[in-house]
Structures
1.
Amino acid sequence: MLADRERQEYLILLIVSQSESPVGSGYLSRELKNYGWDLSEATAGRLLAQYDTQGYTTKVGYQGRVLSAQGSAKLKELEEKKQRTDQGLEFFRVLETKTAEELIDVLVARRAIEREIARLAAEKATEDEIKELRYIQRLQQQRVEHQRGGAAEQDVAFHRVLARAARNKVLEGAMELIRQDGQLAPVLEYIRKEVHSVVSLDHANIIEAVADHNSDAAEKAMTDHIENLIRDVKKYWNKVENQG
């Protein structure tokens, strides 16, 4: 969640933005109580005056305040930060509830399905699909190298394009079923970072085998990729257990 000051700022700007008429200190004080903030009317008034000075609100005579363009931008910034923070807390909650055995079970299932997907993709992928795979792999590598946030989204996209290229709806559906837990990709990405593993190199090997239309090489590259992930999970959990 946001820090107390930012959360208070977020709630006040939110209340002002959602009101159909200018917001006064009395109204703000009452509305904040619904969110667990017990602020006196005088304190609410001082905060509104402070937001006037900062340019977040505009005073409308004696009626109260409305949100300014600058205030709307600030509210959006705080909403995005709140969302990132909430997602981060949810991520670590998911990580804490996972065990090494659960993750390895998922990866073993993926190995069985994706080795066949890679083989079929090497036979059936079009030039456009190969270009799409290369683009995703480059984007993933750039995000990792320049530390532009996580690359879990690109990881999911890569495997989805590969499954589509295999032209087998049953295998594609099986992959989607395994990936129903949307937090698995970021969990695996976090683990790889902790053990200093780089997945984009595995993806590059898979692409080259698919581009060469070499089914055996594609199957091996995918198998190696999944086995590298299994190794990373085991390495991470050994590290956690040793620290504990």
2.
Amino acid sequence: MTPQKFGYMNDVDQLIEQTSVHQVLAHYGKPLPEKASGEHRMQCVFNETCADSQYGNLTVKLDDTVNRIYCHTCRIRGNLLTLLHGLETHQPPTGGRLRGEEFKNAVAKLREISGQPASNAAPNTQPNSFNPQPQARPQVSAPGSTPSPTSPKLTNTPLHRHEKEAARELADLYNDLIVDVAEMSPEAAQYVRSRPWMTPDLMRKWGVGWIPGNGRSLFRKTYMVYTHRNERGEVISYSGRDLLFEQKWLKWIKDGKPEGKKPNKHRYVSGFHKGQELYGGFASRLNEPYVRESLNKYGLVVVEGMNDVLRLEDLKVAAVALTSNRPTDQQIQTLTRFAQQTSNNRITLFPDCDEEGEAGFKELLWKLAEQRLEVRLACSSQMFDGHFKGKQPENLTVDQWESLTKNLSQT
């Protein structure tokens, strides 16, 4: 006979059973399941790189409260608390299981979402230092019922007016970034030299570079740092590209792909809602002559990664990036508004021409077409006799871009 649970743990188990997946996903502004039972697929919330894999979808079992989730790529599994931990921190639980403060914080968040008082919540429930604003609580639906379509809109607070002093001090961190390869670490210098278009002027303009360990750095010396801004051009966060990712990836494969140890290519500051933003989507870019000219020629160009935006700017093409291969609903809304206001309802999609990149952009194409926009595809692995198969926008040569120009220019 299974021993009966008492007190706090019994209360937590009941809370998990009584809170629906719909309520949790609605709280974070995520797409909701279209059905009340069976399985729901969503992008992995634990490892950014899972989105780069064709097996990267997170399976959510709507009928199983114990084994609620499983990622087929990073192999993280668990219950509703594990899902909450991923949605909050964008990282897997330490050691593969929720324990200690991680467990208590997840329980406290679940109480908040379910509308229960926090009398039994963990004492350490302070909000994340980079997302201190409490989220508006959605209307709570009864378990199993269809939730209200209204969900809270997540926001990224500009660092210069953040309520946390530590965050405000990072608002001008981009000024500390090194753009001269002679002053970089060997790994950073090699990364930049392999991208000759990544000039010091371009990096300085976009707030990209390497940073030494100086006490202000959010990232170790093995990261290339990128500055993220909102539409008003205010700094809202930073991210890092792991310069040792390729080595770590090969080691992970050699070690048999251990559970919970899959390396991440990019690291984002905890609490940064990257799905609410478009990299490169700040209004001041419209003041640059080449941007207006590019919008008139090609429409609004949409790419996957940050380097893609930088490479296309070097080619005098105005692009914005999802920082993922799959769009969020907020990004669809923003892209629609941008296209209506700046490019006469025209959008050009420029995916990574591999299986994973094209799969995500097929979804993006459909959703933009539903907004009655004129959507074109710049290239794919099958177009132009497969000439661009395996290519990414950041890999384009000048000659390759010029071969696409005739097809993309407005007639």
3.
Amino acid sequence: MFRKYILTILALVGVGLGIVAALRSARTMVPTPMVSDAPTPPYQAFVAGAGLVEANTENIAIGTQLAGIVSQVYVKIGSPVAPGDPLFTIDDRAQRALVAQRQAAVLVAEPQVADAKYELKLAESLVPQGITVEVRDRDAFAVQKAEALLAQARADLKAAETDLERLTVRAPVAGQVLQLKIHPGEFAQVGVLAQPLILMGNVEPLAVRVDVDENDSWRVREGSPAVGYLRGNKEITTPLTYVRSEPYVIPKVSLTGAPGERVDTRVMQVIYSFPKGGLPIRPGQQMDVYIEASGKVGDRPAILRTTTVSNREPTAASR
């Protein structure tokens, strides 16, 4: 008899659970407090943009021309390097054996040249005594052949030594190792990788790449001063020195993943630099950057437009 009421009981339980879930979802959500208040723009007319800190040489993704197993890594994360310093070496035992083989070939070819030259010199000295010209010409050809074989052996040795040198990847510029994603025993692939084997760059001074909306790009003058605030702490701020403006306007890369961002926005990238000094700012961090802007189009006064800039990412500026 109890079975008659099972479906009814289950239905009532389901309704009860639905009511509880609805009440819980209807609770007022307390907004998450901001980590830091938005910085105050230091200029009356300005353009705001999100900046990404990077090395002043740009972040250099180190790769290898020859694939193989890594036998030795010479640097650590944060290690300073000078141009030409070794970073890592691909297993070079086979290549060293080939170099030794090429060196032996050169050692064999050198006495053959000396022997051929001796025979030619002897033939030339015997010409007045009746030796034929054909014999002399034959010995001269033998000298040329021996010299050609020696040149080929030396070229093969040079090529083998070059490939041996290429197995050791060296720093192209002075800088600091920012990321190290390769270790002894791992296989190093060639080509452009999604995750570079080593990421390095010169971090003194640091650079910040600022995205300026294309609608405001005309307001940024060459040499315009700017001020940067570290994202999340407006107290960490530094004046910025203008370096250059990228000539090509590119699609904006989303740095926040905000669902309201327009995917068709294009930006002009402006590069500024600042001394790292004792600032707790590292490559890869974001900054809120305010650039002093022009308020006129030629001789016509521009209409100033002000918008609220959040502490997440400045998306507009006064105009």
